[in-house]
Structure formats: structure tokens, C-alpha cells
Amino acid sequence: MRRFLVTVLGNAIALWLTTLIVAGAKVTAYPPADTLATIVTYLVVGLLFGLVNGILGTAIRIVAFPLYILTLGLLALVVNGLLFLLVGYLSSLLGFGLSVDGFWWGVLGAIVMAFFNWIIGGLLRPLAGRDRR
Q1: CA distance linking residue 82 with residue 106, whole number of Å
Q2: Helix axis angle, 35-51 to 2-21, nearest 10°
Q3: Higher pLDDT, 18 or 130
Q4: pTM of the predicted model, to two decimals?
Q5: Has residue 9 been placed in a domain?
Q6: Which residues partner with 97 through β-bridges?
Q7: Cα–Cα dist 107/125, whole Å
Q8: Residue 111 pLDDT level (bands cut at 50, 70, 90)
Q9: Is residue 64 a contact partner of residue 75, using CB atoms and an 8 Å limit?
Q10: Domain contains 108
Q11: Overall domain count for the chain
């Protein structure tokens, strides 16, 4: 349970940093738009991103494995960009959350978020209990 919460927190922080850098991706907090609502919105979108990436992303990577090999992994950019767009669409159904301006902004957002998740995952690894050796 602790590992799950740390992962959601890491996704939320990575998403926040991504929206600061990528101009085509932004998060709209649910009303009233105060600091607590913004933090909760980032946590909810981080949870949604983790669920979509963990369930649907894994299934797509398993099914499309031959295409990943054929394209030397470049298909991963397209898949991650589409998953980023899907999170934006699903969160917009809730009336708040991530909005992405287009496919290429989704690809750039997915790349930047993956980079931040890698860094944050390394920093939060002791909290998640994944550093047992």
C-alpha cells in the first residue's frame, strides 16, 4: 500500500513539473480553485495516469511487442503520447484535470513526464521500500 501511495505521489509531482515545462499540457483544478483543490487534482490525475499506464499501457506493450522490435522502440513514443492524451480525455470527463492541446504535445508531455518519473522514482525509492538488497 505504501508503494502505491508513493507511486501516485511521484506521478503527481512529475505531472506538476511537466505542466510547468510543456506549454501544451495544463491541469485545471476543480472548483473552488484554491491550493488544496489543485493538490487534490494533481493527485487524482496522477492516480488516473498510474491506472491507465499500468493496465492499458501494459496490455498495449504486450500485444505490440513485435512492432516495438520492428520500429526499434520508436513506437513507444507514439503509445506513451496516446496514453497521455487518453488521461487528458478521461480527466476531462470528470470536469477537471489534464488538458493536452494535441498529439505532439502529448508525445512531448509523455517524454518529459517519463524523465521526471525516473528522477522522482530514484529519489522516493527508499520511501516505497524498493531498495531492499
Answers
A1: 7
A2: 110
A3: 18
A4: 0.88
A5: yes
A6: 28
A7: 26
A8: very high
A9: yes
A10: yes
A11: 1
Residue 44 pLDDT exceeds 80: yes
Calculate mean pLDDT across residues 99-112: 95
At position 69, the amino acid (one-letter code) is I
Q: Is residue 29 part of a domain?
A: yes
**What residue numbers bound the domain in which 30 lies?**
2-128
The answer as to whether 133 is a domain residue is no
For residue 132, pLDDT beyond 70: no
Q: Alpha-carbon distance 24 to 54, whole Å? A: 24
pLDDT at 131 over 60: no
> What is the β-pairing status of strands 25-28 and 97-100?
antiparallel
pLDDT tops 90 at residue 33: no
For the purposes of burial, counting CB atoms within 10 Å of the CB of 92, is it exposed (0-12), middle (13-18) or buried (19 or more)?
Answer: middle
Residue in the block written with cell 488538458: 99
How many residues does the structure list for the chain? 133
Q: Which residues pair with 27 in a beta bridge?
A: 98
- Write the Ramachandran bin of 27: left for phi over 0, alpha for psi from -120 to 50, otherwise beta: beta
